[in-house]
Amino acid sequence: MHHVRFRDPAGAVRDGEYHGDEVSFGGRTYDIDDVEVLPPTDPTKVVCVGRNYAKHAEERGEDVPDRPLLFLKPPNAVTGPGATVTLPEGKYCEHEAELAVVIGKEAKNVDAENAEEYIAGYTVADDVSNRDDQDAEKNWVRGKAFDGACPLGPVLADPEHLPEDASISLRVNGETRQDSSIEHFIFEIPELVEEITSYLTLEPGDVVITGTPEGVNELTDGDRVEVEIEGVGTLEHTVERA
After folding, report:
1. Phi, psi of 125, rounded to the nearest 5 degrees
2. Which structural domains are found in the chain, ordered by start?
């Protein structure tokens, strides 16, 4: 099943089911164009994994880490499908297609072998990145945590819908820029959950985005971005310059 969080025509926020061109909740069905699709979760934090694909580390001129490279995006970075992301003024920014893991229950000191018990499902993310400031600082607040820097959605797919070798791709204005598969992860999802929860508690609704494959490139004013993950869905958003 694919779940969707939306605001109905009366303004109420609902958690319903996604059926292609329609969404449903409580016996009512709405045309997708008549509702506002929201991010499928409202996280207290987004834990991000850097350089989890070897070819992306190579294109960035960085070494493959010997343990997961972690950083955070705060709630202000989360925005929904169809959003327009405002890029920081005068900064060089890039897209990063990523599989997002949504946590279903409080997770602390979780062993990798039990990690699946804590996963509510999967969605799609774009880790929009301000490279100018990211490359100039160590904590990446300016580079990764600006408003709208984590478009997320459109649906939450139950775990069984994600193939082990799910393809992940990104298009800008219809042109494919990233095209890979999660089978190229350096650190698999259970390893990531174990490592993260050994340091901090993941709350229900929190998100782990799992790294991007090679092919990242510049975003410019007016670009239309589509991130597609097999079995999960397609996230669309646009960008504009401040």
Report:
1. -135, 155
2. 1-38 (2.30.30.370), 39-241 (3.90.850.10)
Residues in the chain: 242
Alpha helices in the chain (DSSP H): 54-59, 131-134, 141-144, 189-197
Question: What is the chain's pLDDT, residue by residue, as a tens digit (242 residues)?
Answer: 999 999 999 999 999 999 999 999 999 999 999 999 999 999 999 999 999 999 999 999 999 899 999 999 999 999 999 999 999 999 999 999 999 999 999 999 999 999 999 999 999 999 999 999 999 999 999 999 999 999 999 999 999 999 999 999 999 999 999 999 999 999 999 999 999 999 999 999 999 999 999 999 999 999 999 999 999 999 999 999 98
